[in-house]
TrEMBL record:
Keyword Signal attributed: no
PANTHER family: HISTIDINE BIOSYNTHESIS TRIFUNCTIONAL PROTEIN (PTHR21256:SF2), HISTIDINOL DEHYDROGENASE HDH (PTHR21256)
Gene that produces this protein: hisD
Ligand binding (Zn(2+)): 262, 265, 364, 423
Protein name as catalogued: Histidinol dehydrogenase
Organism listed in the record: Thiothrix caldifontis
Length: 433
């Protein structure tokens, strides 16, 4: 019998208990921080040698040099040619759907001209070189190759450097085939904090990138957090999460399996059910206990549900919405009669899956939206990985002589108000007599 935390919004300490279960600190502690900090510093100092050592240690490999960890493009192409036609078709279909969706996100440059001839606008450009983190510790993620690379390509990033751990030296053929389909430029069989560090700081072999994107476990998420500023990052896309809001009228087996679908990623993953019907919560518990026995990843699912899972009894559906908005989950399933109406009340979620027929799992692979999503309540201020993450904006200002004179007068007054006389005089030179 799995012991999953149960909370009721009528409990006097409900919000405190919920906060504790959601906290970043519940999956990360000083030990993780110190380990990652040490790895980042060491890779920065010793480059390839440190990356090789950490890879041998954490991924149980025995390579002698970094060059052994680069996977040649010909090897990716060979994988694409050797996988089954079903696998190839599924990867290509998923890639095509992601591309169609991503094309809607493309930002374009814009400008307008004022009456005196002054032009103002915004010029959008793609990043030069991006690092794609593809997880690979406890499962292989060909889908994450596509999710990272497709929007980058749509944005027009010229150079994509992919990293993926290959524990025990086992390379996943679908991951390589997905990399071939996505036209990534270089692939290194490295993972964890050492891979993030190699991308962020560059080594003799791994080129330094401008931004590191992609999901990963707590070590990867912590490393991305810490290299931010040296490079850009997309978001904190850490251990997976699902929150299911159910009105009690969906098949409880479906809900149990939806909760498992994220719990099976990682012991640190988090699955939450929010429901106003106490009897239904009991039915889902029964389904969980029966179905978990059939799961190949039973141990990971059980640990995740036991340590981080929560079954929340709310009093009303309005309260369910309030709880969901507070949690700001990576994935929110609205398994209710009126999902589209309820979705209008959702303000914080990485992705919203509407209706009893929309399993979160289709979003993980092929619906079209990206599966790289903010976790640990960061959906309050972060968005799904998208084309916009691979683009940046420069402001454009082109003053006409008349515009320079008009704006120069305003700037002069404000600059003198700030006591910045060079600013004032620079603007004043352009004021017409
Ligand atoms: N939020 C998202 O968008 C999203 C999408 C897909 C997957 N995920 C998550 O990505 C994660 C994938 O995790 P994973 O472990 O399978 O692969 P991973 O590639 O993220 O992590 C594996 C690496 O972690 C490092 N590591 C493991 N134990 C360590 C230790 N004790 N000390 C130092 N480093 C250590 C190793 O370097 C190893 O190569 C899961 O948590 C999954 O839920 C999130
Ligand atoms: N659920 C993950 C995002 O949290 C994505 C994924 C990939 N493969 C299966 N699932
Ligand atoms: Zn998943």
């Amino acid at each position: 019998m799995l012991n999953i935390t149960e909370l009721n919004t009528t409990d006097s300490d409900f919000w405190t208990k919920l906060q504790d279960l959601l906290a970043w600190e519940s999956v990360s502690d000083d030990a993780v921080f110190n380990t990652v900090n040490g790895i980042l510093k060491d890779v920065r100092k010793r480059g390839d040698a440190a990356v090789v050592e950490y890879t041998n240690r954490f991924d149980r490999m025995s390579v002698g040099s970094m060059t052994e960890l680069e996977i040649p493009l010909a090897r990716l192409q060979a994988a694409l040619e050797n996988i089954t036609p079903e696998h190839r078709a599924a990867l290509e279909q998923a890639a095509a759907r992601l591309k169609s969706y991503a094309e809607h996100q493309l930002l374009n440059s814009w400008s307008y001209t004022e009456a005196d001839g002054t032009l103002l606008g915004q010029q959008v450009t793609a990043l030069d070189r991006v690092g794609l983190y593809v997880p690979g510790g406890k499962a292989a993620y060909p889908s994450s190759v596509l999710m990272n690379a497709v929007p980058a390509k749509v944005a027009g990033v010229p150079e994509l450097i992919m990293v993926v751990p290959t524990p025990d030296g086992e390379v996943n053929e679908l991951v390589l085939a997905a990399a071939a389909i996505s036209n990534v430029d270089r692939v290194f069989a490295i993972g964890g904090a050492q891979a993030v560090a190699a991308l962020a700081y560059g080594t003799a072999t791994v080129p330094q990138v401008d931004k590191v994107v992609g999901p990963g476990n707590i070590y990867v998420a912590t490393a991305k957090r810490m290299v931010y500023g040296t490079v850009g990052i997309d978001m904190i896309a850490g251990p997976s999460e699902i929150l299911v809001v159910c009105d009690g009228k969906t098949n409880p087996d479906w809900i149990a399996m939806d909760l498992f679908s994220q719990a099976e990623h990682d012991e640190d993953a988090q699955s939450i059910l929010v429901c106003p019907d106490a009897t239904f919560i009991e039915q889902v518990k029964a389904s969980i206990n029966r179905l978990v026995e059939e799961m190949p990843r039973k141990e990971i699912i059980s640990t995740s549900l036991r340590n981080r899972g929560v079954l929340i009894h709310v009093q009303t559906m309005d309260e369910a919405v309030k709880v969901a908005n507070y949690i700001a989950p990576e994935h929110l399933e609205l398994s209710v009669a009126n999902p589209r109406e309820m979705a209008t009340q959702i303000r914080h979620a990485g992705a919203i899956f509407m209706g009893r027929y929309t399993a979160e799992a289709v979003g993980d692979y092929c619906a079209g939206p990206n599966h790289v999503l903010p976790t640990s309540r960061t959906a309050r201020f972060s968005s799904p990985l998208g084309v916009y993450d691979f683009q940046k904006r420069s402001s454009l200002i082109d003053c006409s002589a008349e515009g320079a004179s008009t704006l120069g007068k305003i700037a002069s007054i404000l600059a003198r108000g700030e006591g910045l006389i060079a600013h004032a005089r620079s603007a004043e030179y352009r004021i017409k007599d």
